[in-house]
Amino acid sequence: MRTLYRYFLVLLLLFLLIHCGKFNDAKAVAKNRVPDKIDFNFHVRPILSDRCFSCHGPDEKTREAGLRLDLESFAFAVLDSISKRYAIVPGNLKASQLYHRITSEDPSEVMPPPSSNLKLSKSEIAILSRWIEQGAVWKSHWAFLPPTKNELPGVKDAQWLVNEVDHFVLNRLEQEGYTPSAEASKEKLIRRLSFDLRGIPPSLEEIDNFKMDASAEAYERLVDRFLSQNSFGERLAMDWLDLARYADSHGYQDDIERSMWPWREWVIKAFNNNMPYDEFVTWQLAGDLLPNPTYEQVLATGFNRNHKITQEVGVVDEEYRVEYVLDRVRTVSTAFLGLTVECAQCHDHKFDPISQKEFYEVFSFFNNVPEKGRVEYNVEVAEPSLPLPDTTVSQYRNYIHGLVKSQLSKVVAYGEKAWKAQKEVPASFSEPVTSSIALPEGLKAHYSLDYITEDRIAEEKK
Length: 462
Prior knowledge:
Layout: H1 2-31, H2 40-51, H3 53-56, H4 72-75, E1 78-80, E2 85-86, H5 97-103, H6 122-133, H7 164-175, H8 186-197, H9 204-212, H10 218-227, H11 230-243, H12 261-272, H13 277-286, H14 295-300, H15 317-337, H16 356-365, H17 390-421, E3 446-453, E4 456-460
Antiparallel strand pairs: 1-2, 3-4
């Protein structure tokens, strides 16, 4: 019996080793697969940055052989005018020294050198080689490139495709050696969609209605329904408000109130109305500079006023006024360029595409706002400010007064019913109230707190 058990264990181990080996081989094949079309920013720049820039990058103190690979003009420049050698010759691997160095097996020639403790994988060598073969197309930093519509990538399992996005998803899955998962259940689909578009879970009624809709357009109709709701704009606005450092307070010291909610409501409305992105950007950055700007165009520039504002008495106004301008530069770069430019505020940085000079060129755009560095303590909104239109104020005032009036009338009516139902006041406070008072709709329980019996409060029920 013991011999049979050992024999079984040996077979099991062999089985696991064989299949684990096959699995690892499959992963290795997927990892070493090279894209058909090489993109410089997506495929090449990360390799150069990680493996080459330490010796051939922006730092002139560590640069070797006069070769610089972080700038296009240097990367394609002649290395040796006598022998006419180039690091990269577009479309010509044989004439490209970079190719020969990364494929060399000679320790004194191969790049990166063994002493650097850096090494290119087979797939990375293949990517750089194919990039040169395809013409070595160079691109500037992705943040400075206008977006373009890509061609749909090819896929093997075309039957799986439903829309254009599926081309990109399936293409990547196939590159990694994976197959698509089965379609999720309707309960999961509506939950995912609701959180993505509205930021809230679906109601039980919405789930039931979607499950009962067996038509081919059920999902599309659900998408349209969610997109038409105000919560859709609120969901999209959440991310933008965070990026724009939105708050209804000043952020310093006592953190007194600041009324920025009208700008927030404008953002929500802009998303729900599907405002074009160029208008969304222009209005927020410079809506007040447009010809004959509307109230909403000026209101949109509240984006630039979301920064913290101090009310501390001992601060230097000019110091904090400059800090507010710096904040706008940093926020604009992060929100619209996808870049952090804090380093350039103090100095040029060898790894930063923005120079200090360029930082303060942007600074100059925001350095003409007539504001103070400190807001007075008893002032809710720091100058310059934009008051709400009188018509809007009247609408809000009437709405609030209406709510107050409605609630007061309910309170008065309830009190009248209570006194009418109580024919006489009990002889003692220990005597419980017995009445047939009609409790407000939706109220689960009522404790008058007027009379106590044996240290217990009587509950009035419907």
